[in-house]
Amino acid sequence: MLEEWNPLGDASNNFDELDGYRYEAIDIISTIDLISGPNKAKKVISQVLTEAFNIELDQAELAHTAKKVEHVLGAD
């Protein structure tokens, strides 16, 4: 889902070890259950990606992807 969204856009070509956001996805999966409350997928995805890449995320795309992640992980 992160690769489909590709929050880095064209800048993703500058990261040799991006591997389809694999490591960021692992961080998200391992952290999501540690947070409580609503919108936890959105919070975790935002935290992981902004810390990893120091980027500003498109909030609409973030919300859309977060809903998909919550559904797949059963965190909704």
Quickly list its features.
76 residues, mainly alpha
Q: Give, in order, the helices and strands.
A: HHHH
Structural class: mainly alpha
From the alpha carbons, calculate the radius of gyration and give it in angstroms. Answer: 12 Å
Shape: globular
Q: What is the count of helical runs?
A: 4
Quaternary form: single chain
How much helix is in the residues? 55-70%
Query: Unreliable stretches, pLDDT < 50, 5 or more residues?
Result: none
Distance between the termini: 16 Å
* Biggest beta sheet attributes: none
Q: Write down how many β-strands occur, each being a DSSP E stretch of 2 or more residues.
A: 0
- What is the average per-residue confidence, as pLDDT, rounded to a whole number? 93
The proportion of residues in beta strands is: under 5%
